[in-house]
Amino acid sequence: MLYSLENDKIKITVSDHGAELHSLTSQGENIEYLWNGNLEYWKYHAPTLFPIVGKTKDLKYRIDGEEYELPAHGLARISEFNLMEKTDNYIAFQLKYSEESLKVYPYKFSLIIAYEIKDNCVKVIYKVRNLDNKEILFSIGAHPAFMCPIVENENIEDCYLEFNRIETSSFMGVNKEAYICKKRHECLNDSNIISLSKELFKNGVLIFDDLKSDRVTIKSRKSKKSLSVEFKGFPYIGFWAPEKGAPFICLEPWFGHADYEDFNGEFKDKEGIISLEEGQEFICSYNIFIK
Mind telling me which InterPro entries this protein's record contains (predicted)? Predict the structure, then answer.
């Protein structure tokens, strides 16, 4: 089922399947900023990644010597959530552990995904609560896809990413199976601009783990419309678009990432894993602004 929130600046639509954002439009002009899920390129809009980000080796992982299997990006994006609360400017959904989830992810948890709108901003909130009698381990992240270019009749080559601080940074490489390589790729050298092109993503996702910036904006050299993602507190951010080219780009704040190509340890040893004690709650959020 789809639910909507709107004010005088923006309107959003959210599904209880995956608690996934399906639409983000500006009022008045009615411009769509979120990817439409066209199956030709990618069927999702803005899935949540939980309890893993990316892939584990061969889709398998070990906890206390026991082997489990999860699809890439985990359970949340393919699960039905329950509506918890809805007001004029806020909506929240919950996913709780089940007998089926315990077979592939052996922890008792509650995941709440909430959306709050204010002016031209959408705040996306994640809350993970440990309902078990032991610590639980997880990663969590966002995978929103935004129209790029935003304005019709422009090309991706007209667009660029702009960070809110000057950066000198490289991004983590990935191999053809989407596992992390030790090799890094130089990208930003005393700059805050990444020019976009179809070629940029020919080797997969660009993952940054050392940025000083906490905000990135999709901009165009031909028009003034833009979209920003503010990702304060997230240790990783990924940028991705399909290799064959598509009119969108994903701006992805993460806690965690895919396995390294040579990783063979237990889940607790995986880089980026969060440990949450019994009865405790982990909360993070990111903001989407349109202009």
Answer: Aldose_1/G6P_1-epimerase (IPR008183), Gal_mutarotase_sf_dom (IPR011013), GH-type_carb-bd (IPR014718), LacX (IPR037481)
